[in-house]
């Protein structure tokens, strides 16, 4: 249901803005998502920050949500667009349940739906300003894919958005292997999230890890990572130049 | 110094909403500025939507007023159809609907606060862009930058109404 305040921009032949509405820039944004396939399914990690430009304004945003029985969606980018996507998916899942035929939407289907939505919005020059990560398990098969705000879509064994592309992916390329145990998977994700915490200005030390297996989705309680700051140079900072500050 | 009297009326505001054990307390300053000139020094930035839901307005004065007016109108109809008072969540969602779908044109940040029998006192922050964030307390407006640190250290759960009021006035 939408309500657009009626505005009369006039003749759309002469006035270029009359019939186009475009998202120009994001306001409240979430930073990276990192996700990997493991032995029993998919693990996904995100922090709980919502930035407003360079201010870290919100510290309790959940950027990963369960979709139906088989999928988990994580988003980075504009939070209001993510909330809108969740509404679209609610409708999708509701209609799926109404068939009452024993079948339910799997991660492949949800990923495809999201790809279509993102690409079509991009074509209208009014993108949903998000990069989405879609993971899930159905009938024993794990699935992990990604869709960007311009509709680029693919699947892989490990994905990351935003800064994670630059910082987490190299780690995952080196250290991911098939059939990771849950503990190893979490350790690997935590390693990536720690690097992001050190090097991504918009990251905060309050993260959640979500797990999806054949049994369903669990999102962990928020927790924080231990970080290392015991650099020797901090112990006696003026050692090389007595009297300086 | 030049007074740009044609500048849009923006509020230059500080708005605060706080939950306590039993409901919510809302606070706001009363200055509306047009550039450097104070157009109204007695503005009421806390606006009633229903008997049990109010909204604090910041950003463009016109935008926030017109959004409040539409939502008050919708909530009035909704209350009649529902047969009981509207919930705070529904009020916040209606504001969100307008804020999100018109994000290209609107420039207003709002804090919706109220009490209903299902969830008790609730505060919802709706910044630019139309994100909805349910929070135990919310701050907004350009003046709120100075308050992030204050509330990070001063806020605690389950304050009494008097404690909440004192904190807000101090802020």
From TrEMBL, chain A:
GO biological process, one term: proteolysis involved in protein catabolic process
Gene3D superfamilies: Glutamine Phosphoribosylpyrophosphate, subunit 1, domain 1 (3.60.20.10)
GO CC annotations, alphabetized: cytoplasm; nucleus; proteasome core complex, beta-subunit complex
Entry keywords, A to Z: Cytoplasm, Nucleus, Proteasome
Subcellular location: Cytoplasm; Nucleus
Principal location class: cytoplasm
Ranges in a coiled coil: none
Signal peptide coordinates: none
Top-level lineage group: Eukaryota
Matches recorded under InterPro entries: Ntn_hydrolases_N, Proteasome_alpha, Proteasome_beta4, Proteasome_bsu_CS, Proteasome_sua/b, Proteasome_suB-type
Keyword Secreted belongs to the record: no
PANTHER family (alphabetical): PROTEASOME SUBUNIT ALPHA/BETA
Function text: Non-catalytic component of the proteasome.
SUBUNIT field: Component of the 20S core complex of the 26S proteasome. The 26S proteasome is composed of a core protease (CP), known as the 20S proteasome, capped at one or both ends by the 19S regulatory particle (RP/PA700). The 20S proteasome core is composed of 28 subunits that are arranged in four stacked rings, resulting in a barrel-shaped structure. The two end rings are each formed by seven alpha subunits, and the two central rings are each formed by seven beta subunits. The catalytic chamber with the active sites is on the inside of the barrel.
Descriptive protein name: Proteasome subunit beta
UniProtKB/TrEMBL annotation, chain B:
InterPro entries named in the record: Ntn_hydrolases_N, Pept_T1A_subB, Proteasome_bsu_CS, Proteasome_sua/b, Proteasome_suB-type
UniProt subcellular location: Nucleus
Reaction(s) catalysed by this chain's protein: Cleavage of peptide bonds with very broad specificity
Keywords for this protein: Cytoplasm, Hydrolase, Protease, Proteasome, Threonine protease
EC category: hydrolase
Key word Nucleotide-binding present: no
EC number(s) per entry: 3.4.25.1
Function noted in UniProt: The proteasome is a multicatalytic proteinase complex which is characterized by its ability to cleave peptides with Arg, Phe, Tyr, Leu, and Glu adjacent to the leaving group at neutral or slightly basic pH. The proteasome has an ATP-dependent proteolytic activity.
Subunit structure: Component of the 20S core complex of the 26S proteasome. The 26S proteasome is composed of a core protease (CP), known as the 20S proteasome, capped at one or both ends by the 19S regulatory particle (RP/PA700). The 20S proteasome core is composed of 28 subunits that are arranged in four stacked rings, resulting in a barrel-shaped structure. The two end rings are each formed by seven alpha subunits, and the two central rings are each formed by seven beta subunits. The catalytic chamber with the active sites is on the inside of the barrel.
PANTHER family xrefs: ATP-DEPENDENT PROTEASE SUBUNIT HSLV, METALLOPROTEASE TLDD
Protein name as annotated: proteasome endopeptidase complex
Organism: Brassica cretica (Mustard)
